[in-house]
Amino acid sequence: MENYIIEMLNITKKFPGIIANDNITLKLKKGEIHALLGENGAGKSTLMSVLFGLYQAEEGEIRKNGQVVKINNPNDANELGIGMVHQHFKLVEIFTVLENIILGVEPNTAGFLKKKEAREKVINLSEKYGLRVDPDELIEDITVGMQQRVEILKMLYRDNEILIFDEPTAVLTPQEIKEILQIMRDFAEEGKSILFITHKLNEIMEVADRCTVLRKGKCMGTVNINETSKEELSRMMVGRNITFSVHKDEVKTGDVTLSVKNLTVASKTHKNNAVKNVSFDVRGGEILCIAGIDGNGQTEFVNALTGLDKVSSGAIKLCGEDITKSSIRRRSILGMSHIPEDRHKYGLVLDYKLGQNLVLQRYWQKDFQKSGFIKFDAVREYAEKLIDEFDIRSSQGPDTIARSMSGGNQQKAIVAREIDKEPELLVAVQPTRGLDVGAIEYVHKQLVARRDAGKAVLLVSLELDEVMDVSDRILVMYEGEIVGELDPKIATVEELGLYMSGAKRDVVKEINDGGK
Amino acid sequence: MDTVYYLIQNMLPVAMPLLLVALGGMFSEIGGIVNIALEGIMLFGAFFATLFVYFVQDLGLSPQTVLLLGMLIAAAAGLIYSLLLSFAAVTMKADQVITGTSLNMLIPAVILLVSKMFFMSDGITTNMNFYIKEFPVLGKIPILGKMFFQRTYLTVFISLVFLIIAIIIFYKTKFGLRLRACGEHPQAADSVGINVTKMRYLGTSLSGIFGGIGGFFYCVGVMDGNVNGHTGVAGFGFLALAVMIFGQWKPIKIFFASLFFAFLRTLAYSVSLIPFLYNLGINQNYYKMMPYLATMIVLAFTSKKSRAPKAEGVPYDKAQR
Amino acid sequence: MGENNQVVKNKFNLKRITHSKGFSSLTSALIAILLGLLFGLIVMIFAKPDSAWAGFKFIVLGGFKRIGDVFYFATPILMTGLSVGFAYKIGLFNIGASGQYTMGMFFALYVGFMFDLPGNSHWIVAVLAGMLGGMLWGFIPGFFKAFLNVNEVITSIMFNYIGMYLVDMWVQGSSVMYVATKTRTNYLPTDVQIPSLGIKGSNVNYGIVLAIAIGIILYIVLEKTTFGYELKATGYNKFASEYAGMKGKRNTIITMLIAGGLAGLGGAFAILAPSGIAGSSMTYEPINIIAPAGFNGIAVALLGNSHPIGTIFSSIFISHIQRGGTLASLVGFKPEIIDVVISVIIYFSAFAAIVSTAFGGIIKKFVGKKKIDDNSKHNINEDSLVEKSDNNIKGAE
Q1: Using one digit for the tens of pLDDT, what is the confidence trace for A344-383?
Q2: Which of C158, C296, C300, C329 is the mutation pick for testing B, counting most B CBs within 10 A?
Q3: What's the pLDDT tens digit per position in C72-102?
Q4: In this structure, which of A52, A384, B33, B172 has its CB flanked by the most CB atoms within 10 Å?
Q5: CATH assignment of A4-238, among 3.40.50.261, 3.40.50.300, 3.90.330.10, 3.30.70.3270
Q6: Are C16 and C118 contained in the same domain?
Q7: Which chain C residues are within 8 Å of B93, Cβ to Cβ?
Q8: Looking at this predicted complex, what is its ipTM?
Q9: How far apart are CA C146 and CA C140, in angstroms?
C-alpha cells in the first residue's frame, strides 16, 4: 500500500449548467512532482481550486495522510500545508513585496503589524532558496519573473509542504523556465510535494514523476512519466494526435504594406518610454511576429499602431499613407484589422448580440445603414453568412448574447469579423490565448490563409511554439526595443530566449540606434 | 492680524467635519465600496445626535459632556445607516452609486416628515451652546493660543485625534493592510483567506462612524447645533468626496485638502468682514459657489493622474477569479 | 428587448417570458414598488397609527380621482427621467438633472419675460430656450468627463449647487421676473404658457404630449439607428467602442448634451405650464434648494429600467403616488412621505433585478422541470465549459 500525502477521491464539481470536474481522482505522493495535464477548460484549475479551498466540491472527499479533511477556504488549505502559485498572480500591485508575502498571515501584536520580524524571515527564505527579491520594492515595479518568486515565497513563508504551481511557465523566458523547473526539483528533493499544472508536454517529460490527464472535466488516467511518451500524453489530453507544426507554403512577399519608422511611445505607468525607436516593415504575403516576454512594450506598441494610444514620435505608414495621427476608423478603412489581445475588453461588446458584434467594424457602411437607420435584415443576413463560413457556434445564432458564448467561439467571431473585412494588414495579438487545441489550429490556419492571399500579417505573441511555428520572420522586443531579427527556420528556441531576456542583442540594431 | 485669527478660528470647525467625512469615505473606498451616501450618513448622524441634544438640553449637563455623548449617538446612527449601503452594495451586489443616491434622498425626507409632524418646523432647533471661548492655560499662549485655543469647539481636537487614529489604522495595522488589499485586488485577498465581504462591511461601517460624527460636528461647528431637512448638510458629503479624491485616498493628504476647502468656504462667508473683498462689491452668491467651483477646478487638474483603489465600485464576485 | 417573445411562435411559453428582459425588469420594478409602499406604510403606522391606513389608501388610490393632475405633474419628471435614463444607457449617471432642469427653467423664464414674440411662437421659443439652458448645464459634466477624466457624478453634483445659486441670484436680481414681497417669480404672460389640453378641472397641457412624443423618439433613436448603436456600445463597453473606431469622447459629450437638453425641457415644461388660478402660470421660488425633480427623475428612470417607454409609465406612476401623497395631508400626513417611498423604491430597484431573478427561478422550477427537451440548453452547457476557464482569465487580470 502506497503512502499518499494528498488524495482527492471521486471529486465532482458543478457550475450552473456545467460539470467542471466529473468524478476525478488524483493521488499525490510525498516528495514527488505530479503533473496535471489538460487543455484550457479541461477542469485543471477548478480541481486545484477545490484543493485550495476556493471552491467546494459537491461530491467526493479529500484526504491528507489518509485522514479525511474539509477544506472550506484558503485558510484551511494553508493550515494543512497546501500553498498555490496562481496562474495569474494574486498580488496587490501597490503593496511592497513584503506586504504581499505576509498578507493574510500578518505577524502582529494586538492587530499592529510587526514587519521587522517578517522581513527577516523573508530574507532568510529568499537566501536559502536563491529566490532573489527586495522585500521593500513595490510589485508594480518588478518584473514578472520576480513576481513569481514573490508568489513562491508566499508559500514558503507559510511553511507549506504541498505546493501547487498553476501554469508557472506561461509567462517566462526559456531560461527562466529552466530556473523554475530546477526550483521545483529542489523542493521535491527536500521532501515537499508538488502539483504542476500545465499543458506543455516537454516540461512534463523533463521534470515530472507522474502525470494525471484531464479532458473535458473527466479524468483520463494517471501515468508514470518514465513509462510514457509525449505522443501518448497528447492523445490522452486531446483524444487524437496533434499535428505539432503548421503547414505553410514558401513565402512569396510582395510590396511593403506597413512601415514603422523610429516609433516611440510614452509609458502610462512609468517615466521611461514604453516603446523606443522601433523601425521595421511588413510586406504582403508574410507573417511577421513580434516576440517577447509580457510587459516589454508590446501592448503599448500595438495600441499606438492601431490608434488606441498616441505616438510620441516617429511615423507609421500603411499602404503608402501616413497614419501616425489618423483615427482608428481611418486606419480601418485603409485596410487594418486588429484581433485584440483582450477579447472581452476590446474585441466584443459582451452585452450585444452576436449579430451586432459581427458588424462592429462596419455598421456605418452603406450595406448596413440607410440615412442613419440600421438595416436589420442586412445585418442578420451578413451575420448568418459569417456564422456559417467561420463555423461560429452559439445557441441562438445572430441573436445570441455574446457573453453567453464560449471563449473559443467568441474568438472565432472576432477572427471572422476582422478577416472578412479583407484587410491589407491583419494585426493579431495573442490570438490563441486561452483556446483549446482545435481552436488554436483553426486560428493559425486563418492567419496563414491571409498570408497566402498575399496580405500582411503582424502577429504579436508570447507563446514560443506559436512564434516558431507560424511566423516567417521574428522580431524580438525587449524593454521597448527591437533587439533582434530571427529566421524561425534557422533559429533555436534557446537563441530566441536569449534575445527575449535581454541577454543578447543584434549588432545590426545597435548600429541603427547609433546612427539616429 | 485679527482677520487671520478670525479666519483660522472659523476655518477649523468647518474643516473638521470635512476631514472626518472624507476619512470615512476613504475607509469605504480603500475597501472597494464607492460611498456616495456620505451626505445621507452625515445627516442621519446629525439628526439623531441633535435629537438627543434636544431632549437633554434642559437637564443641566455640561455642554461638552453632551457633545461627547452626542458624538457617540451620531457614530452609532452613522454606522447603522451605512449598513444599508453595505447590505445593498456588498451582499446584494447592487450599483453603489444608485444605492448611495437613494440613501441621500431618503434622509432629508424623513427629517422633514418627522420635523413637520412633531416639531412643526423644517428641522430640529437646539439651544445648547458648545462654543468654547477660551481654553484655560493653553489659550494664554501667545499667538498659538489665540489661533487654536480661543473661540473654538471641542470638535476640532476630537477630530485631530480621529485623524491620528485613521493614520494608524491605515498604515500600521493588520486590518488596514487587509482592507486596502480588498479595494485593490479582492481576488488576491480572497486567495490568502481574507473574507472580502466582511472586510468591506467593516470598511463601510468605519465610514458610517466617521460620517455620522462628521455630520454632528457639522451641526455643532457650522449650524450652531441645529439640523434642517431642507438644506441638510449643504453638500458637505459631496465636498468630502472631492476632498478625498484631492487627498488621493491618503489620510494626511486628506487632512491638508480639507483645510484648503474649509479655508475657501470660510473666506466666502466672511466677505463682509474683510474690507478688501467687501469693497469689490461682488454678489455674495458668487462666494457661496466658491467651494463648489474650487472643487471642480481642483478635480480638473488632479483627476487625470489620480489613482483610485483599483477594485472600487465593482461588486466582488467569488466566481470570477 | 421583448424581441425574444416575437421570435418564438408558440402561443404561450412561460419559460420564454420569465427569461425575457422585459419580464424581469417589470417584476423587479413591481417588487421595488411594493417594498417602497410597504416601507411607507410602516413609517405611517409609526407616525400616526390611527390614520395610517386612511392615508395609505389616499397614496395608492388618490391619484385616480385627479388623472389630469397626475399627467400634469408627470410631465417634468418624465423629462428628467428620460434624461437620467438616456445617460444611463450610455453608462453615465446623470445626477445633475436637477441643475439642468433649473437652468432650463431659467432660460425659459427669461425668454418668457424678456422677449416679445408673436402668438404661439413665444412659448415654443421659450421651450427651446429651456432646452438650450439644460444642454449648457449638461455639456459641462460631459466635457469634464471626456477631457479631464473627472467622474460625471461629482461634476453633476457640484454644478447642481452652482446652477442653483446662479439661477436664484439671477432671478432675484431681475425686477421684471421677481416679486420680492412674495419671494417668487411673477406670473408669465399667457402667450408664453403652454396651451392647455382643455380637460376639465385640470391644467394638463401640450407639455405631456410633447414629452411622450420625445420618449418615443428617444426609443427609436436608441434602438433603430446607428447613432443609438454607437451610444449603447459605448455604454456597455467603452473600450470596445473605441476599438471599433467610435469617438468615445464626442459621444460622451453628445450624450450629456442630449440628457441636459431633456432635463432642461422638463424645467421649461414645468415653469411654462398654466396653473390653477385663471391666467396664472407656475412660479419659481429662489430659496437655495436643489430642484427635487432631478432626483425624482432618477427614480422614474430606474423604475422604467432606463427604457424610454418604460420611463413614460413609471413617471405616471410616480406622479400618481405624489398626488396621493398630497391628498394624504387630509388625514394629517405630510407630502414628504412620498419622497420617503420614492427613495426606498430607488434603493430596492438597485438590486431588485437579483431578487426578481430568484423569483423567476422559482416560477421556472414549478413550470420548467417537466420540459427537458430543450436543445438550446444543451448547447449552452457545452459552450460554457470553456467559457468558465475564460472567465478565470478575465477575472484575474
Answers
A1: 889 999 999 999 999 999 999 999 999 999 999 999 999 9
A2: C158
A3: 999 999 999 999 999 999 889 999 999 999 9
A4: B33
A5: 3.40.50.300
A6: no
A7: 351, 354
A8: 0.89
A9: 10
